[in-house]
Amino acid sequence: MKRLAHPDADVRARSLGLPRGRPVIALFSSGEPLTTELGAEVLPLLRRVVAGRDAVFITAGADVGVVHLLGVALEAVEGKLPSFVAVAPSGRVVTGEDKPADGEQALNPHHDAAVLVPGKNWGDETPALFRTVDAVTGKRGRVTALLIGGDAIARAQVTAHLSGDRPLVVVAGTGGLADEIARGTLSEDDDLAVLVRSGRVSAVHLDEGPERVVAALDQTLGTKPTPKLTVWPRLRYRAPEPVPIIDPGFVVEYPLLADAIHEANRVVAPAFHEVDETAHRERNHARLFIVLAIAAGAATISFGALQAWLATQAWPGVLVAVSGALAAALVALSRRYEATEDDLSAAHRAEALRTLYFDHLAAPLPVSDAEREARIQDLVNAVARHRHEPVTTS
Fold it and tell me: Where is the LSDAT prokaryote domain (predicted)?
């Protein structure tokens, strides 16, 4: 634990027991407890976010709300865990076994280090929080922020974060500031509205699942580079991580489409990723059998030349017959994956679902909740139809 002598004191990563240059995720949220329903949805998200991640999380430290759930999530996660640093005003948190007085809160015990800033009000720690971020990341480190809910303190922290041209991932559907940003309801004369519109902000709705939030974090941190194009097919095909149909930052740039994007991501996107993976798997199988058939054909030609050279030997002819039969069998197998109506069905279904996704975004905004519910039901029916009805290629 490090107690700063004054609010502007330097913070060094070594004094916190951390090496420099590690990626940092700053967690911004509200200092109020979450409802049971919201907490039940946020907890799986936090478990997935922290699992196996080599990063440093910097939080407000108080054992309440999202930070409390973060501690609960850590208890259920096995294997490698990230490091956690709390930055809080010394007059608002207590450490160890001391009992909090009125206006105080206990420090979450799952933090590896804590920076206590002289101050009696929440918000006094904000400058020190960003000095801590800079100390851990160093000159070449990567940093992003995760906003879940958020109050006035989080608003000031997000403003300072975006002012430094740092990326932000907003979890919509968690209330507070997160929903204001995702819905585009920030006041036009608010500096935060300008920073959100001009900054690198991604919004993912809580209903879209933890994987979407993790993908957005990985994208902003640059921890998962774009996979290289493969020349040769794979013997064991492994599906890559699903890529969002549209960039999560699109929600922030076009807030009027936020609800439609959320609906399409919740209803259409899972089905699209499923059939798109099937299409890629079929394509990989087709390429694999074609390559093997070409190799077997080349072997047949080589053995034929060997038979002509060794005219008095019988075994080259056996090799020619075996390799020729193998080539014929591989060609027959590869035809199972050729461009027939059945074999292209997955690709056609994927394109149909992609078209359905953008058609939903292009539709006029609903004028009532009843119309919105009717459109969602129509969307569900259309997804089911595209997934299960026969596909025609004519």
Answer: 22-215
